[in-house]
Amino acid sequence: MLAQLWCLVSPGAVFLLLRDRAWLHQGGDVVAGLRAVRLEQWVAVLLLTAHAWYLWGWWRNQRAEAGVPDPL
Length: 72
Fold this sequence. Notes:
The chain is mainly alpha-helical. It is 74% helix and 0% strand.
């Protein structure tokens, strides 16, 4: 249920990342690009990372229940 509800906020996080793309156009300077990232964009990245982590855990759990050995 949490993963399904999590999908409701993920498009908003993607929107926050793509709405203001100043961090992409900093002339190749990585440090300047990181400084241009706003706080809500960092939160969006953390939210999407957490979503991927939860989905990966769900996928591993489904494989374990099916009896498939973990490749890691």
